[in-house]
Amino acid sequence: MPKNEILVYNYSKERLPLTKKEIISLSQRILTLFGEREKVCLSLIFVSPSEIKKLNHYWRKKNEPTTVLTFPYSADSLSKDHQEIKEKDLGDIFFCPVIIKKRAQESKISYKKNFVILLIHSLAHLYGYDHKNKRDSLIMEEVEKNILAKLNFK
Question: Is-above-0.85 flag for pTM?
Answer without folding.
Answer: yes
